[in-house]
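Expect chain and fold; see below:
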Amino acid sequence: MSILDNWDQWKNFLGDRLNQGEQQGLSEGAVNNLAFEIGDYLSQQVEPKNDQQKVIADLWSVASEEEKHAIASVMVKLVENNGTK
């Protein structure tokens, strides 16, 4: 089973990556820009594996550039307390 198949595992994975980035000194802006780039990559290259990812993919597909940055920022906020720490 891939981490993409399970929403909670996906959030924990993202939370772990966020924690690593913060420990390495990435600024909030850099983290949000990276989240945008990851979101853009996923929307173009990866098929959503669960209902939550499908909703995010649908939102991403109709969002403006500014709205995509907002979605990415909200995803960062969503996972910032997730992960194994």
About this structure: The helical segments are 7-23, 28-45, 51-62, 65-79.
